[in-house]
Design goal:
The protein folds into 2 domains: about 210 residues, Rossmann fold (3-Layer(aba) Sandwich); about 35 residues, no CATH class. About 45% of the residues lie in helices and about 15% in strands. It has 8 helices and 7 strands. The chain has a 7-stranded parallel beta sheet, sandwiched between helices. Helix 3 packs parallel to helix 4.
Length: about 260
Amino acid sequence: MELDGKSALVTGAARGIGKAIALRFAQEGARIVLNDINKESLQEAAREIEKVSRERVIYKRADISKSKKVKELSRYVTEELGVIDILVNNAAISRIVPFLDTSEKLWDRTMQVNLKGAFLCCQAVIPGMIKKGKGKIINMSSQSGKRGSKWHAAYCVSKFGIIGLTQSLALELAPYKINVNAVCPGVVFTSLWEEHAADHARREGIEEKEVKKNLLKNIPLDRLGTSEDVANLVLFLASSRSDYMTGQAINLSGGSVLY
């Protein structure tokens, strides 16, 4: 098993990509801590993942944009599992809104969850990784972290920032054998994307039923991504197979982004 004996914290793990990553980790022998703000969904995800896990799946509700809550989460995880070997900063929010309609509240919340949350979680787990002399940090960026898109300014800025954070940490932590990489998925049609389909249709001037067809026209491999596609790449980055890779922002977009 790729992650046998390793402990992993996955944020935003109650559904979609985060849950798929946690499930894949559990299948490969990792001890899992799930984090999200929705306790009921966390409990449901934990029950599902425990069916394939050899270990009890731990979950902890916490708003990772709040320093106090992240410190509480870190203490809880340390008490339960000791040092975290793998951190996946997946928690994020996204809204498709014209720039001039973007409120200060929405801008701030996007930065707090998507960027500050990753910053706080990294600060919480890195000291233990340094002491251990190894670790894996995988930050979830996006194709929107490689190129901007209209009606998506706050999200794009936060995901560009994730790549900058990844590169900076990769250089700073390399002497401690801590690998820091980012994943940049394209369109993965999770429940979050379904919630935004109407806004995407308005942005593109199309009917909602045409959204998937509209998205596919820009994807050379002619299919949308899946949560499992992302989980497989994250597994590679979390495993020893990627020990010579750090500071990278890897596209997973079916060929829609090539830089």
